[in-house]
UniProtKB/TrEMBL annotation, chain A:
Keywords: Signal
InterPro entries: ABC_transpt-TYRBP-like (IPR007487), Peripla_BP_I (IPR028082)
Signal peptide: 1-17
Keyword Signal: yes
Transmembrane segments: none
Organism in which the protein naturally occurs: Mucilaginibacter terrae
Domain of life: Bacteria
This protein's name: ABC transport system substrate-binding protein
Automatic annotation (TrEMBL), chain B:
Main localization (coarse): membrane
Organism in which the protein naturally occurs: Mucilaginibacter terrae
UniProt protein name: ABC transport system permease protein
Domain of life: Bacteria
Presence of the UniProt keyword Magnesium in the record: no
Subcellular location as annotated: Cell membrane
Topology of the protein relative to the lipid bilayer: Multi-pass membrane protein
Transmembrane segments annotated in the record for this chain: 7-29, 49-73, 85-107, 127-150, 180-197, 203-223, 235-259, 265-285
PANTHER family reported for this sequence: ABC TRANSPORTER PERMEASE PROTEIN YPHD-RELATED-RELATED, BRANCHED-CHAIN AMINO ACID TRANSPORT SYSTEM, PERMEASE PROTEIN
Swiss-Prot/TrEMBL keywords: Cell membrane, Membrane, Transmembrane, Transmembrane helix
Alphabetized Pfam families for the sequence: BPD_transp_2 (PF02653)
Amino acid sequence: MKRNSYLLIFAVTCLLAACKSSNKSNVPVVGFVDAFEDATIAQAKNGFVDALAKNGFSEDSGTIKIEYQNAQGSIPTLTQIVNQFVSEPVDVLATSTTLSSVTASQKTKTIPIFMMVSPTPERAHLLDAQGKAPANLFGTVEDLNYIDTSFSIIPKLLKPKGSKLVIGMIYNQSEPQSADAMERIKGLAAKLNVTLVALPLNSSAEAQLVTQSLLNKNIDAFFANPDNTVFAAFETILKSCEQKNVPIFTSEAGLVQRGAVAAFGADIYQWGYQSGLQAAQYLKTHKTDGLKPEMVKIRKRVYNPTAAKKYNITVPANFEAVK
Amino acid sequence: MEFYLTALLQGLCFAGIAVGIYISMKIFNIPDITTDGSYTLGGMLTGTLLTHALPLYLSAFAVLVAGAVAGAITGIIHTKLKINALLAGILVSTALYSVNIITAGRSNLPLVNTPSVFNVISFTTNVNLNTLIILLFIVALIIGLIGYLLKTDFGIAMRATGNSETMIRALGVNTDRMKIIGLALANALTAFSGFLMTQQQGYADISMGIGIVIIGLGSVIIGETLINWLNITSVWASLLLVLAGAVVFQLVLAVTLTLGVNANLLKLVTAALVLLFVSLPRLSLLRQHD
């Protein structure tokens, strides 16, 4: 029965490996949950960490421990990550993007959750029958108003080729905020006397195909509605649009850095920073008094000088160039 | 320990998928990709029905029927239209994406204050323990029913269809119908996994089924290793080991997480650990025979 001893050794090793010495020190622990990997979204974490550091909680000085886990787009992994943080338990949960926030909110009602890059609890359908959000939800959220401002820049900066301005956009059917945004823009386009051509897609793999089919519809501009698919496939979209001389507008500063012409909207880094400030306040006082999900405060008007020059677009003076 | 308990719960929620894949893959030798779609179908349907205040038992029944229909469609495409099983599964799974989005009306559906099978009866005040007790009961019921079914004449005909189709057809069994029923059964179980998982994680999401077939396959292969290793022929024990496979798969993930492995290496480590587990019997063959 030699093999059984192998099995025994394996099992014991697993069990021993699983026993992490849980010596609770006085250093507060933050469990940071990211749902997937993305260059722009990752800035939220940097902002969050910087805000904590500014308030005297930094890993370098040993005043805080930030445990970072990324689910790489897998929901079972995401659930396990949140379970792990809840059962440790960490002092504070930080969640970036909608899916992480929803998972955390459903898994704990006691540990304060500081959301970032997430919609309002109401838009995430997290309100109970009395219309109240879970009491442990804090952080920084966004509703759909930002879209109005970003979208209405386009007619101001661009002259239509034909009689009416035609703007193309793609939206991701599998993301609530993306589909919501599309509905919103539809209504907006009607008001601004703009024709909107919106095509749905389901994954970033389809982005190139759908973008090409949009460009064949003779659009004047492309509105990159910042959802996970657009973030992931932005370079593809950019390349296709550049070939057809179609400028891209968006509502998020990170995408302007990557080549869109202009945006008026939240800055992902600042978004994380704002949540970090809230988390720092909680860690200092250990009270949640006065904390609630806040709207994003810092919205920036930014433009990309290279892209603006390429399309001969004169950007108003109140826009700042991205570095 | 609490964390391992939650991993165990997650593993038990995947019991339906594991048994479903066991039926399609091991019994019928059909690689069924419908799983990705029917799991999400189960989840989204559960979310939709529960938020519309439908009682639990009706929701569960609806989920089982919906999953069975999805599986039956794959079966019909595969047997009647003579289309490769993989493609049939991919087609149905792709079509289900739209069905799922339309069903729920949105892509992410949190369950707030809806009834759940896990708090129908309260045995203890500890939520996770209570969930465990109820899950064990549900899983025992699933294993019991499927085990019993595979023992009946009908089940034996099913198993024989996978083993030797020509022979069983010569004995007058309609093998096409067998396959359709088998796939319907497998996907009903998969959808039921989605039903449990949605309540366990508190929301349904359109992307919850991505790559879920791998979890089912992993469970079946781990179970398979144990079955071969321990020379098991009984249907009951096989089903139990497949279930154990599902639990082990999630526990491996949990161990990797607690070790504080860099998130980028998570999948690699999971694969390596499963590989180690599956290759252990092979390693023992390297020893000198005395």
